[in-house]
Amino acid sequence: MITVNPDGKIMVRRCLVTLRPFRLFVLGIGFFSLCFLMTSLGGQFSARRPGDSPFTVRTEVMGGPESRSVLRKMSDLLELMVKRMDTLARLENSSELHRAASDRHFPVDRLPPGAGLMERIQAIAQNVSDIAVKVDQILRHSLLLHGKVSEGRWDQCEAPSDPKFPDCLGKVEWMRARWTSDPCYAFFGVDGTECSFLVYLSEVEWFCPPLPWRNRTATQRARKPPPKVQAVFRSNLSHLLELMGSGKESLIFMKKRTKRLTAQWALAAQRLAQKLGGARRDQKQVLVHIGFLTEESGDVFSPRVLKGGPLGEMVQWADILAALYVLGHGLRVTVSLKELQSNLGAPPGRGSCPLATPLPFDLVYTDYHGLQHMKRYMGLSFRKYRCRIRVIDTFGTEPAYNHEEYATLHGYRTNWGYWNLNPKQFMTMFPHTPDNSFMGFVSEELNETEKQLIKGGKASNMAVVYGKEASIWKLQGKEKFLSILNKYLEIHGTVYYESQRPPEVPAFVKNHGLLPQPEFQQLLRKAKLFIGFGFPYEGPAPLEAIANGCVFLQSRFSPPHSSLNHEFFRGKPTSREVFSQHPYAESFIGKPHVWTVDYNNSEELEAAIKTIVRTQVDPYLPYEYTCEGMLERVHAYIQHQDFCAAPGPAPPRARAPESPFILAPNATHLKWARNASLAPGAWPPAHSLRAWLAAAGRACTDACLDHGLICEPSFFPFLNSQDAFQTLQVPCDGTESEMNHLYPAFAQPGQECFLQKEPLLFSCAGSSSKYRRLCPCRDFRKGQVALCQDCL
């Protein structure tokens, strides 16, 4: 007879009584995981032939992709289980502590060790995950071995020495030493054998020649592109709001903006459709990855949305999403790295391998943070697909900063830049950098009735200060400046505060606090003047104020602000000099809507205020910042910008080709000859080219503006020849080709002409007193500087 210790019975009884539901759940997890693993993979280990090892894997039942799919699902399930168990453990621990505090006879040091329990659970989950990875590797290895044994190819797994693949041997050596450095290699079947190295390097990457004994039918069968679908304008944006997601204040702000502008987007789509006249537009598949909103990049914007933080970037991203959707393109939106990795089809690991499948998107819109994310996950595929990327870049990236080698050698390297993209792939908020593409944003457009109501409801002595953060009011010498304003105007502010009035805001300023956008618009519609304190630079608010009938008053900077003298611009990939808070408003709008004065000159400031108070202005919004203007611009970019098409070599000619240029009648500049053949595929069309020789020390950006034109960098290749200098009657004693972002140019003294050696360095920006730059200019559509007259 078996005797049982009474103390043991008591112990068992106590354990059963105190076993909580959570503990039962935890005990079930291990059993469930084991069952799941065995049932998912059980078929892989069945149907053995006589004489097989107990661990022989039958390739007939392996079903490689299906097995990997099961393993991936199991890994995701384990991750979800751990998260939920962690939450339950925290809840139980808190409840146990609460009961312990109320039950004084229960000592705290005898509470269940919740943290230790979670560590054990996570260790179990990790072990099961590791087993899944190992099993996957075994299955892959067995397939490879089975193929080699059945075909008798053991002797053909030596690294070949092929002059067409000079890097093959070196790559095989690297794989021998480092193939375990990234799990992505195992994902593609690498298992440490020579054959697996060669299969990977010839079929996944391209460093080794194809193996003759491999069945390449599957690898050679290129995936057929999906049939082209015509893009159709959309007017209902409800699905877009779903695509944008939720959970962040930044996304909530963007969705509210999009919803508020829905009617204007619909009307703009109707107008553009009429303008295009039914021309066919192929639907593009577009990925939008907003990198700065990811948790991994810090997402410093979302917490500040409700505290007066900068909203310009979110305004622009909301409008980009709306424009792409309204134009009828397929859209995916990601604001996390996990979503990005999934949408790219990136293999698991650290980004050393190419994508597992061809990139399913025709275009990718992202920012500098997203560019880093994409390079991380796309691995070797990044170089192949980077021509499809468009980088939203508020302040622009000049070619000298974009070219990695040149930037490093000549001191232009910064924390941004050096990506070796076509400079037109960078898209700015304002058209200040012709080397980049102007993306922009939209402001709300008023109808004629609203404009008349605003004109009749203006208070002649009311001013609103541009600045929602108290730090902006810490302007040096602001006391004198504000006292002058206070003599003539009732000053209003919209400075964020929580409990008490910000001390930086003077007592005579009526502060409304942070206002929702509709209420801020109503305040602007009453005000006469919108006042800039010098910061923030180039935001959307001044355009909104001008569109609501305000005059924008801003400070003139002397000396101009740049990366050389101002901390804000330091490290940005541009040498641009900013002469005022909002250069676009100063240069493209100007008086009477925009006044730029020296705030340190009291007489000039006071005279400007007196004139503004007496002057009546109408609400004004440049066409390029309307919904229709942005749709028109984005449509043109999608239809015509192709940075993946490599230019073909020039055909050989028996004699020098006839020059496509003629000298203008006044002998000041070059024009495209009427009888010259147009460059096929050139956009903008080559016949819009006008070429000028700039004065020494003058950038092409400014030289073209001097003649009422826009610098067009895509025309530089046409001018990058000795023929262009000769036609312009420039006396070149010699001609050299070098890598310099100022070329083509004419050097004085020396009478020497210089041509550009590196196409990525063609640049409208940049100047030197030593050179007279040869500048390509073009016309532009009224109110749409991004497009030439015939660009649409």
TrEMBL record:
Protein name (database record): alpha-1,6-mannosyl-glycoprotein 6-beta-N-acetylglucosaminyltransferase
EC identifiers of the protein: 2.4.1.155
Similarity section: Belongs to the glycosyltransferase 18 family.
Recorded name of the encoding gene: MGAT5B
Matching Pfam families: Glyco_transf_18
Species per Swiss-Prot/TrEMBL record: Delphinapterus leucas
Catalytic activity: N(4)-{beta-D-GlcNAc-(1->2)-[beta-D-GlcNAc-(1->4)]-alpha-D-Man-(1->3)-[beta-D-GlcNAc-(1->2)-alpha-D-Man-(1->6)]-beta-D-Man-(1->4)-beta-D-GlcNAc-(1->4)-beta-D-GlcNAc}-L-asparaginyl-[protein] + UDP-N-acetyl-alpha-D-glucosamine = N(4)-{beta-D-GlcNAc-(1->2)-[beta-D-GlcNAc-(1->4)]-alpha-D-Man-(1->3)-[beta-D-GlcNAc-(1->2)-[beta-D-GlcNAc-(1->6)]-alpha-D-Man-(1->6)]-beta-D-Man-(1->4)-beta-D-GlcNAc-(1->4)-beta-D-GlcNAc}-L-asparaginyl-[protein] + UDP + H(+)
Keyword Magnesium annotated: no
Record has Transmembrane helix as a keyword: yes
